[in-house]
Amino acid sequence: xxxxxxxxxxxxxxxxxxxxxxxxxxxxxxxxxxxxxxxxxxxxxxxxxxxxxxxxxxxxxxxxxxxxxxxxxxxxxxxxxxxxxxxxxxxxxxxxxxxxxxxxxxxxxxxxxxxxxxxxxxxxxxxxxxxxxxxxxxxxxxxxxxxxxxxxxxxxxxxxxxxxxxxxxxxxxxxxxxxxxxxxxxxxxxxxxxxxxxxxxxxxxxxxxxxxxxxxxxxxxxxxxxxxxxxxxxxxxxxxxxxxxxxxxxxxxxxxxxxxxxxxxxxxxxxxxxxxxxxxxxxxxxxxxxxxxxxxxxxxxxxxxxxxxxxxxxxxxxxxxxxxxxxxxxxxxxxxxxxxxxxxxxxxxxxxxxxxxxxxxxxxxxxxxxxxxxxxxxxxxxxxxxxxxxxxxxxxxxxxxxxxxxxxxxxxxxxxxxxxxxxxxxxxxxxxxxxxxxxxxxxxxxxxxxxxxxxxxxxxxxxxxxxxxxxxxxxxxxxxxxxxxxxxxxxxxxxxxxxxxxx
Amino acid sequence: xxxxxxxxxxxxxxxxxxxxxxxxxxxxxxxxxxxxxxxxxxxxxxxxxxxxxxxxxxxxxxxxxxxxxxxxxxxxxxxxxxxxxxxxxxxxxxxxxxxxxxxxxxxxxxxxxxxxxxxxxxxxxxxxxxxxxxxxxxxxxxxxxxxxxxxxxxxxxxxxxxxxxxxxxxxxxxxxxxxxxxxxxxxxxxxxxxxxxxxxxxxxxxxxxxxxxxx
Lengths: 503, 215
Description:
The complex is a heterodimer of chains A (503) and B (215). By secondary structure, chain A is α/β, with parallel strands linked by helices. Helices cover 48% and strands 12% of the residues of chain A. In chain A, strand 11 (412-416) and strand 12 (419-423) form a beta hairpin. In chain A, helix 16 packs across helix 19 (397-410). A 6-stranded parallel β-sheet of chain B has the order 1-12-7-4-2-3, with helices on both faces. A 4-stranded mixed β-sheet of chain B has the order 8-5-6-9. Helix content of chain B is 25%, strand content 26%. In chain B, strand 10 and strand 11 form a beta hairpin. With 215 residues, chain B is an alpha/beta fold. At the A-B interface, helix 2, helix 3, helix 4, strand 1 and helix 8 of A face helix 1, helix 5, helix 6, strand 9 and strand 10 of B. Strand 9 (289-294) of chain A pairs antiparallel with strand 9 of chain B.
């Protein structure tokens, strides 16, 4: 279990708590054997399956390029497509609301729920509503929000935080899930059976029975959306369990909170993403259920449909010509599943509903880099590039990470809440600036590098595990690697020296 | 200023420095990906649909139109269904051989009432071979979305080969966006416990697809 949980036990965590910086949070997580075991098991399983699902499509790279270009084009003309979407949704019987930030979005949704006279809502898993802390905002107004996705239910019942985009309870194994169901379900509704075992089928059955009574009586549903089609006003939700279908079709009122970047220009564009998203996320040819709706339909589904378009830092991200590619993200979570840092540190260490590589570039852009956690996130990576390779919309995550590191270390002009501001260099990165400068110098002076490496090898028995003086900050969060007995250059010279010239 | 104007203003300012781009949308995106994957005869496409449906734990049956009523009666009987929901425009002959009580879907039927019905029989709008997907569009032979959601047993009739396409792009071409659409690939499932797929959560836990020829 993660030790980074904040807030009073028994209360949901605040929407934007003061998270410790990534290295501190990860420090504890990597020592949690069970957490690492759960994550290793889950990510290893999905990695192999995803590779297989992607290999079935020989045009994968062309689909990926098309996806990237559709998103880039949309972002370039986002104002136009937002207006077009609003017109189409309105013409189809929906109502469109615009929310500049989390507080506005929460107020809009709370008012809409209150207007129905209801005191509970059923929710489809949605990153946007997690991002704005909607459940907590509703709770404060006396409205109970029931999460209905199985993993979200596990998180909600366990008074926990999500740790993965697709499977928020990925840090829990089956035994832990059984314990949570046994001890917590009764407080929220139908209790778990006394003899509940830890087989996934039985756990899924317990969730089915627990949630069914809530679905059948629900009057208000709250969702996000995977895609919104500007030309038709159609919203799309991709899911597996059927909880999405329940929330989208049974209630009288449906409220969807969606980030402004989720737009696609045309109906046809879905042909790209409905092929790349399921294979990237759950490694399936197609997910079990996809719902598409356009406004309201007489006699079928909710009579009232409200779309809340959410900015909350997205336009600030759009203003950064390197960083804006993060807005292409379709939340598949493939980058989490391949990331060596995520696999060891777990999702909680990222201090955001968006963990993993995409979170490391999205959170500091949506929230700014003024907090400890957001300033440290661009460093939560070894820049190995696996995230870029699997990304179905080709987001160059390493490029954005380096860009954001530069911003943290050197400061510079950024857009915050719609205004251009100049950031000062972050404090505490002085040693790093010096180290980066030194590295640049050494790499551009091969003789110096060679000499330093030999010196390091020959004195390796004398090396400490941590650095003294200004280097302490660096090694406070990293064990100093052992210097090899023989530098690579010497080994190469010795084993290949006669075959090739030393360039 | 309204939230709308402020957001649109921020978007325009954010894009003020971006390079001009007047490329018409039709030319902005390369569509050189495949319209379908591989070349198959019509029969092979139907076989692939069956194969992929089974792969995701749907139960597949085949028959001709004359054999359909008996097959449906057999499937309902096998499950000991006591009631079957009937969409308003379902071909009455399909249920002509079953003695199971037929429940017409009423506009004012509550979800609790639907929950007491064991099975539902529908047609479909289109089926996708490459992904093992059936798509419902709320036409009269399929009914409202909820009737294929709340009962635990869904029998979906696909007319082959007419309703079968190879790929996702071909399916989207056939569908009408303004209709409420439900894409179904196998019974309800979850991967939320250790990323391992388990069938059977909130939607129908048994999905039977009847591929009927000569319809």
